[in-house]
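Final report, Chapter 2: Outcomes

The project's central promise was a pipeline that accepts a single protein chain and returns its three-dimensional structure in a standardized token representation, suitable for archiving and comparison. That pipeline is now operational. To close this chapter, we reproduce one record exactly as it appears in the project archive, with the input sequence first and the structure output second.
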Amino acid sequence: MSSTIDELSEGPVDLASDAVVVSERRTPAGRLYHGETAIDFYGRRFWGLIGSGVLIAITVVSLVFSGLNLGIDFEGGVAWEVPSANVTVDQVKTVLSNNNIDTANAKVQTLTSDSGTRLRIQVSAQDQEIVSKVQRELADLAKVDVSQIASTSVSSSWGRSITEKAIKALVIFLIIVSMFITWRFEWRMALAAITAMVHDVLISVGVYSLFRFEVTPATVVAFLTILGFSLYDTIVVFDKVHENEVRYHGQRASYADVINVSMNQVLMRSLNTSLAAVLPVLSLLVLGSGVFGAVALREFALALLIGLLTGSYSSIFIASPLLAIFKEREPKYKNQRGVHATGADLERLVLGGSPSGHRRELARARQTGAVVGGGAASGVPLTADSVLTHPPRPRKKKRR
């Protein structure tokens, strides 16, 4: 013991912890890979909430003034598909005008596939006589047989039925999920997870409204799919939070420290999960739809991509900050609201340090006048007086 004290009393030492010294030898990418980052997510909790608030406000404004670009399956109407080798968009609009069809609201899209290029014309509901006449004129214009002009009529009531069923499925899904999370964890986590999922849907709908992407049944299916992914990513984070909450039970750790430690430990897993999910969707969108011409995959892949990105974002910057806000209202954590470790102290906790040990070091630092947060990670040396629980005893003189 005396030899150890002699070594400490001879000058400043780097005593943050062996684990912190090891983590310092890693690059930032290495610390991220091993879950050894020390990002203060709690301290930046309002950044994500404010950013999401702005995006949701933009969504509301866009929905009020522009609405959604609903496809024929929801609005109802008539659609024709005609080979475009000998047909132009202006010629198609001329055919529509000659049959007293409003061309201002008509949608004309160019579809590319292995079989060639086709024009898809979508208008509001028309009489069957008008539908057949336009089909014949388009066939004459394209110089093909009438049977090669695809014609589809959809009633608006069918679109309303799809919308109602989708809303019912969404409500039932949210109720079941809330009950499960409440049973598995607690109601505060359920509330934070459901809020994050609603956030994902609102942001995704806002993107479709703002950029005028067409909403089709495939889009609705994709929206329901991304709810599952968003929930999965949030549950992964909450499971680690619950594990650390149990681990720090009885050590008077603030919930901010529990959130920060959990988020840093699970950050790489969350990024890997998101990346593994986004890459196949990108291949569907870029290769399947863009290169190989599988246009039918475009609406589904686009909605999935938007939902996956918002789901990954919400699990880190929405669900966890909301959970911290909810939990800090409990009597157990109320007195420690806003108290959390940062820098080297947070890194020590991420690497397995004890919150009680962190508090003892802070108390000793205040008593001795040492800089709080000193150590190897902060570049501020710790002295023997600030580390030991008592002043070093003088060395005994050896008898001659």
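Archive annotation: Residues 255-291 form the longest helix (37 residues).
This record, like all others produced under the grant, will remain available to the consortium after the project formally closes.
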